[in-house]
Amino acid sequence: MANETEHPATAVVGAGLAGLLCARQLQEQGVPVRVFDKGRGPGGRSCTRRTPAGPVDFGAQYFTCRSPELEPLLQGWLASGCAAPWPARIVVLDGGQQRAEEAAPTRYVGAPAMSALAKQLAAGLDVRLESRVLALRRDASGWSLQFEDGRREGPFARLALALPAPNAAALLEGCSALASPAAAVAMHPCWALLVGFSEPVVCDFDAAFVHNAALRWVARDSSKPGRPAGDVWVLHAGPAFSRTERASPPERVSRLLLADFARALGRALPAPTFRIAHCWGYASIPDPLQLGCLHEPGQKLVVGGDWCQGSRVEGALRSGLAMAHTLAASR
Ligand SMILES: Cc1cc2nc3c(=O)[nH]c(=O)nc-3n(C[C@H](O)[C@H](O)[C@H](O)COP(=O)(O)OP(=O)(O)OC[C@H]3O[C@@H](n4cnc5c(N)ncnc54)[C@H](O)[C@@H]3O)c2cc1C
Q: What is the pLDDT of residues 143-189, one digit of tens each?
């Protein structure tokens, strides 16, 4: 593994699932790689938040594995125990009515939390956290990265950007033609609320897709395998509400989402013991691309993430594989 002063051949910016799987694939093929992320932990939108009741899945709630190319990864995760099936009772709440889901795929979760997936992928990789890239520069010797704290790293012969589309577009502006296809991909915000209750919410399901004024999804986090006991729920708002209330104070949003939850259930909720609200700026993608990753061969640059391959965790992982494959083929 490269030391502080010498730079490995490849840099990956973004330690979400796409960037980590890309880096891991490259490292397994003997390509030295260094990963950078602005966050304090790896995982991006598939992360876990500490709460008074223990860690709770804050972004991605579960994942599916319909794609055969991900089967070996899934089997490895299941064998190591960092993922498990979530045999949840999931319903649809629509206009005061409750109905069963029509066709349900097998759903999996990280164990003991969604963050376990990123931790497993990051193990053994050179991952530099709290490293926000502010600018990229490309010259004859390769790519250099300029960080928020003033430091610079590079040159790297190859670069993979595994970021939400608007973040990638901002970094690529002025230095790559890939800025414009990335900028053309829209991403919706999502208000998320984690809430603990003093006593269990009375209902006969573990999670629900909600078609209400504000909410899109509610889940009893404690129904997932390996979670701490207690009644902790995750509430996700839909894109329209999240856009309208994007700049609202968390207290207001918590109040509106809890009221909407009570309305969807048709009964009052127990008293909350804690509430943590956060608005994800770039949560979901209405029209994701279906091409694996963007590639600029002359610049030895790939750009990817869930928005490049059908969205969601499965799309992020498939994009990670596509980025690694494309970069390895360009050596
Ligand atoms: C609220 C919510 C609910 C969701 N629910 C589900 C679900 O139930 N099932 C499902 O399959 N998917 C779900 N998703 C989607 C899923 O989380 C994503 O598809 C997946 O995690 C995307 O992975 P990624 O690696 O492409 O991007 P990300 O996870 O966004 O990773 C990108 C990384 O880049 C880093 N970064 C950004 N800019 C910079 C910079 N300038 N410098 C350095 N680092 C930077 C970020 O910190 C981040 O770690 C949900 C997402 C959200 C937000």
A: 999 999 999 999 999 999 999 999 999 999 999 999 999 999 999 99
Q: Domain 62-110+189-284, CATH 3.10.310.70 — does that match?
A: no
| Cα–Cα dist 47/39, whole Å | 11
Give the CATH architecture of domain 10-46+118-185+292-329: 3-Layer(bba) Sandwich (3.50)
Distance CA 12, CA 127 (A): 9
224 lines ligand 1 (CB under 6 A): no
Residue 326, CB half-sphere, CA atoms under 13 Å: how many? 25
Contact status, residue 111 vs residue 81, Cβ threshold 8 Å? yes
Cβ of 275 below 6 Å from ligand 1: no
Question: Does ligand 1 come within 6 angstroms of the Cβ of 132?
Answer: yes
Q: How far apart are CA 318 and CA 313, in angstroms?
A: 9
Q: Which two tokens stand for residue 34?
A: 């260094």
Tell me, what DSSP letter sits at residue 32? -
My answer on whether omega of the bond before 155 falls inside 30° of 0, hence cis, is yes
Residue at 78: amino acid letter:
L
